[in-house]
Amino acid sequence: MDFTVKISGRTRNISPKCGQKPGLVGLLREPKWGHLRDLHKAIKLCEPALVSVDPTVSSLGSNQEAHVFKTRSGSCAAFLANYDASSSARVSFGNNQYDLPPWSVSILPDCKTAIFNTAKVGAPSTHIKMTPVSSFSWHSYNEETASAYADDTTTMAGLVEQISVTRDTTDYLWYMTDIRIDPNEGFLKSGQWPLLTIFSAGHALHVFINGQLSGTVYGSLDHPKLTFSKYVNLRPGVNKLSMLSVAVGLSNVGVHYETWNAGVLGPVTLKGLNEGTRDMSGYRWSYKVGLKGEAMNLHSVSGSSSVEWVTGSLVAQKQPLTWYKTTFNAPGGNEPLALDMSSMGKGQVWVNGQSIGRHWPAYTARGSCGKCSYAGIFTEKKCHSNCGEPSQRWYHVPRSWLKSSGNILVVFEEWGGNPQGISLVKRSTS
């Protein structure tokens, strides 16, 4: 949490000690939620003076200041700030003494009583327990790998930007073309496969050769651009290259963010042929918007019954581009419910046709989880916790969406996870 004080043209960032940053769960998290609530209440009590006059700023010490809002009618509110990142300070204000922890602000709605300090957490801490209440019996349906020049594709010369084609109707766009390999290619005899290199503007890319997954690459928030580079096994004749480009949301902040690109913009090259390096960027490419399962609405209650699902021992395990379906009954009680998706890779989840969100537990947090102190200038790298774990494991399932029995759960898995590890859990706190 970043508490920003901007008074009289000055800006200081005071970061209260609200605990570390645990994984998302979609429900209230204490003590952070309660601490922010108390901050809002304190500022609300200062409102009569805060919105009426400019502050008077006075020094209380070498790194301490008082910002006082006082109206002619007698309303008064004060903010006592300690900008020292390592030492506490006792300051005199009015006729009272106040103890200010390092890098903190105390709020006095009446200029006398400090009812809130950003570094003193009064909200109770809670211990969250997730208790599994049911596992599932799964059915699976494998998404087809799209091929160039099929009836449901559009073909044009060169590579195009993804969002300009999908119009944000889906996260997915297929890029497809044929790679013709002469029977006299030297690599067919030497066994040294050619190197396929693909440059993409982001955000993730799955590459298939002749229907088989060759590899997956993805960017990051800071660096969405990515490069796929891998030696690939090609046979004489026509080889099918299918690339599934994935957009992970749209940017909504930044300089000219509306011009930021996604998708494969090239070049796409094949190195190690008799001719040297072949640039395929100018080839005729076929494009298919979205997935077959999306077109059939497999996530919906009605659409989920439109295909033949595989059951029992034949259910796909750790296979990319796979849909999973199961049914379950609503558990008793009134505790909040969630799905534990830690065994899956990346995709999306629906309950009774309603999306509960995109999951990506295979994308784990990086960085160093060391000693935590929020004192000093705040950065997003402060007080990391749960390094090596996904940002979200549990996905909230609203009880209002559930029937007493026969609820339909559908999961689309991009990367290939283990659905047997998915469980429905109850959330309790202590």
TrEMBL record:
GO terms for biological process: carbohydrate metabolic process. Residues 172-239, 321-407 form the Beta-galactosidase galactose-binding domain. Residues 65-121 form the Beta-galactosidase beta-sandwich domain. InterPro entries: BetaGal_gal-bd, GHD, Glycoside_Hdrlase_35. GO terms for molecular function: hydrolase activity, hydrolyzing O-glycosyl compounds. It comes from the Eukaryota. This is Beta-galactosidase. It comes from Cucurbita argyrosperma subsp. sororia.
